[in-house]
C-alpha cells in the first residue's frame, strides 16, 4: 500500500479524477506511519461498510493486504463480513463528497483499519460517510 497523509491532495489513480475535481486522501495508512486512533459510532461503521460493499470505485487488478496486521494475523485478501456478506477489501476505493465540496478518496481497506486497528478518520470523512 502507498501512504498518503489524511486530507492531502489525491494523486494515486489521477486518471480516475474528473478535470477540475478536487480529491483528498483519507485512510491511506502504512506500517511505520502515524495515524489517529479513537472510536467512531456504530452508525458510521455500518454506513462505511455498506459503502465498501455496494459502491467501490477505481477497482485495480491487484489486491493489497493490510500492512498493519501482524504476520500471523494477515489475511489475503482481507475479507470481513459486512452485512453478513464476505467482502474482499484491498482492490478498490470508496469516494464520498465532503460537505465542503471536495471528494474524499479512501482505499476500501479503510473499513478494516477502522474496525481492526482503531483508525479514526478525519471529521470531514466521518461526516461525509454519514451524510452519504
Structure description:
The structure is a single chain. The protein is of the alpha+beta class. Helix content is 23%, strand content 13%. It is built from 3 helices and 5 strands; from the N terminus they run E-H-E-E-E-E-H-H. The chain has a 3-stranded mixed beta sheet, with helices on one face. Strands 2-3 form a two-stranded antiparallel ribbon. Helix 1 packs antiparallel against helix 2. The longest helix is centred in the middle third of the chain and has 13 residues. The radius of gyration is 14 Å and the shape is globular. The two termini are 26 Å apart. The model has no long low-confidence stretch (mean pLDDT 93).
Compact overview of the structure:
By secondary structure, the chain is α+β, with helices and mostly antiparallel strands. It has helices at residues 42-54, 110-117, 123-131; strands spanning 23-25, 81-82, 85-86, 93-97, 103-107.
Order of SSEs, N→C? EHEEEEHH
Helical fraction equals 10-25%
Regions with pLDDT < 50 over 5+ consecutive residues? none
Helix-strand makeup class: alpha+beta
Q: In which order are the strands of the major sheet placed?
A: 1-5-4
Q: Which descriptor suits the 3D outline? A: globular
How far apart lie the N and C ends?
26 Å
Multimeric organization: single chain
Total strands: the figure is 5
Sheet having the most strands: 3 strands, mixed
Protein name: DUF7919 domain-containing protein
Organism: Nocardia acididurans
Pfam families: DUF7919 (PF25535)
Domain DUF7919: 2-130
